[in-house]
Specification:
By secondary structure, the chain is mainly alpha-helical. The protein has one domain. 71% of the residues lie in helices and 0% in strands. It starts with a helix and ends in a 6-residue tail after the last helix. The relative contact order is 0.13.
Length: 262
């Protein structure tokens, strides 16, 4: 009950910044929207590229708009800059709740409102006559939901690790900004992962990026040729590994922290 109340309090806080949240959503919306129009023109006339036609590509980018608003967390900047660099971590450490849960509650609240905007935009496109090819098989839908929840957890843990690197780094943006580029390249927001060159796919498979957007969207579309059970297994291994790494970094990082003047 205590954790639920904290989540509700953070939700009320997030709702005070509805306009700012909507602007952030629009920024993340533009890239897949432009790519949707590009592929719509490139695949017109019944063209097919590696199993992707105009209709399936249309579905893919519409779902990407929702997926990246819900599944890609943005906690790292707040952790690195506001909490560690500016010293607000002192206030957080005094609270009788684990810091990880506090950040998770706050981030879930942001994901809810961002996801709402994503669903609104998706509904607008559907009203304009665009079709969405989502699997109708209940087991596949359940599997897609599980993959998406694991992806959200992966994203959060990964971004928390990036954030607390600020315990050891003066210029944290040297890590955060390249990471944003890798997310665009390898997560499936730029193009479906299976359309990337094979050598890039082979490298990216050993990173968390493809699991953040591409696999949740592909599972909801019911894309064949993907072992989604293996995807879920890999996501679980990533989450366990990231959690263990986070705890180790947090243990040593807090010892280095000093909130002078707080």
């Amino acid at each position: 009950m205590k954790y639920l109340r904290i989540l509700l309090l953070y939700s009320q806080h997030v709702l005070q910044y509805r306009t700012r949240s909507f602007i952030w959503f629009l920024i993340s919306f533009l890239n897949p929207f432009i790519l949707l129009m590009f592929w719509d023109g490139a695949l017109e006339g019944g063209k097919v590229i590696n199993g992707w036609n105009a209709a399936s590509m249309q579905t893919y980018y519409l779902l990407v708009i929702v997926a990246q608003s819900v599944l890609i967390t943005h906690v790292e900047n707040e952790v690195a800059v506001e909490d560690i660099r500016q010293g607000n971590l002192v206030r957080e450490l005094l609270k009788p709740i684990d810091y990880l849960w506090l950040k998770l509650s706050n981030e879930i609240s942001w994901r809810f409102i961002q996801g709402f905007y994503g669903l609104v935009v998706l509904s607008i496109f559907l009203l304009q006559g665009l079709s969405v090819q989502i699997t109708s098989e209940v087991p596949m839908i359940i599997q897609a939901i599980i993959i998406a929840l694991l992806a959200l957890t992966m994203s959060f843990m990964f971004k928390m690790i990036l954030g607390i690197l600020a315990f050891w780094m003066t210029d944290i943006y040297g890590i955060l900004e390249p990471n944003d580029v890798f997310i665009i390249m390898f997560s499936g927001t730029l193009m479906p992962f299976d359309l990337l060159p094979e050598w890039i796919r082979n490298i990216a498979q050993f990173t968390p990026y493809p699991y953040l957007v591409y696999y949740p969207v592909a599972a909801l579309m019911g894309r064949g040729g993907i072992n989604f059970f293996q995807v879920m297994t890999n996501e679980i291994f990533w989450i366990v590994g990231l959690f263990a790494l986070y705890r180790s970094l947090w243990f040593f990082g807090v010892k280095r922290f000093s909130g002078v003047g707080q």
